[in-house]
Amino acid sequence: MDRNISPPPPKRRKLSPTTDPISPHNSTPLDAAFSNTQDKDAIRIFSWNINGITPFLQTRLTNYFTKRKRSPNSDAEENTPQASLRAFLRRHNWPHVLCLQEVKISATDVKTQSAVRRAVNAKTGNDDNGAEYDVFFTLPNDKFNARGLGGKGKVYGVCSIVRSDIMKQYNIKVRDVPWDTEGRVSIIEIYGHHDTTPSQSSTTNPQDKLAILNIYAVNGTTNPYCDPKTGTLVGTRHNRKLSFHAHLMSESLHLQSLGFSIILIGDLNIAPARIDGHPNLRTFPEQHVINRADFRRRFLDGKGEDRMFHGVDVWREFRGVERKFTYFPRGVTWGSSCDRVDLCLVDRAFVEKGGLVGCEIWDSEMERGPSDHVPISVDVRVV
Asked: Is 239 annotated as contributing to ligand binding?
């Protein structure tokens, strides 16, 4: 995001000690955030654009929370967690899946990848009896479009973190897609319970197949985009954003044809409607309007057209016109510029089957941490 954009209320709602997500004594913060998540079969999915993994690789935690000023226009202090993946998972009661975007790890940087695995599973004290996780990376291998600082490819990248117990409970496959060379899409395919193989599940029990697409969508700009194989200039990042939409829609429709229910979650780099931007929705240059219209047609509004995804914006499905935002740029007063660009979309059939349970946007400076985005979460059933 590169301009001023949507605010939360200046005064945040105060939560009780048992529901406040910043409380170090809170063992189940999400149970209060979701009004109807008392479903033992629900899977809790978090998504967060962390804007670089490095600050999150602390493994030694002597104190989960430190004090700091909330914002330049506030004289109050709040408890702020250290930038630790393990502490984040613990604070949010061990979600089943954590989708991270913009991890900024080079595909050849095995050392940092190993450090992430250690950080996710590092015990934070004698009382840490929490979950263990498997970690999967989708990192850029495009030497023309994802060079990063120093040409080492330390840019973009997504990471899918899945709780080890559901890896055992379900048949789960995590894969990339051939049309993405920038490390932007990771697909978690869940094939029902572990008493069937993926091939059996695809034919005998298609209703319990779920695909979670962890997405860091292209940000449309006038910067050049080159053919990833030849390096030939083929357009701008705006052009690539539109082709990314087309590829993502085709991938989703293909998965649907195989019997999967679809969850698209992550930083989609689109604020879908006027209500999702403050102080205004980005409309200049005009290409941003074209990009938004293309996204809406392919994923939200294309009900009357063939070969469209026909998706549901989970936040709007549950919360109607409630305004919360996910992108809060640093260097400006909290809430003066923000957008809802981190989204969760599901196919309409999944909603009609009762697959959706609840959702939340964790919009606070504390939850933003060292990033410029806040996390979102959704509870779903494998139905």
From this structure: no
The answer to whether 247 is a known ligand-binding residue is: no
Residue 245 annotated in active site: no
267 is an active site residue:
yes
Set 170, 347, 373, 379: catalytic member: 373
Instruction: Say which of 225, 276, 278, 342 is annotated catalytic.
Output: 225
- Residue 278 marked in a binding site: no
pLDDT score for 8: 46
pLDDT (0 to 100) of residue 20: 33
Provide the pLDDT for residue 306. 63
Q: Which of 142, 180, 267, 347 is catalytic?
A: 267
Name all domains of the chain by residue range, CATH numbers in brackets.
29-381 (3.60.10.10)
301 annotated to bind ligand: no
- Identify whether 339 is a catalytic site residue: no
pLDDT of residue 204: 37
The answer to whether the annotation marks 145 as part of a ligand binding site is no
pLDDT at 337: 94
Q: What parts of the chain have a pLDDT lower than 70?
A: 1-39, 58-82, 126-127, 193-207, 302-306
* The pLDDT of residue 32: 38
Distance CA 132, CA 170 (A): 15
